[in-house]
Amino acid sequence: MTGPRPTAPAKPGPADREEKRRLDDALEEGLEETFPASDPVNVIQPAPSKADRHVKRWN
What we know:
By secondary structure, the protein is an all-alpha fold. About 35% of the residues lie in helices and about 0% in strands.
């Protein structure tokens, strides 16, 4: 008895490569803007807390 044959992973398309490049650029920018620092870089901005509702956030 044999199981299903494993399939090869799909090759990344242009949209996948563009998304990876965009994320890599954002990470690089975050590293440059926070160096030197002890906290790791977070590419995604967290949601504002209740106390931050008056603060204008850039999207």
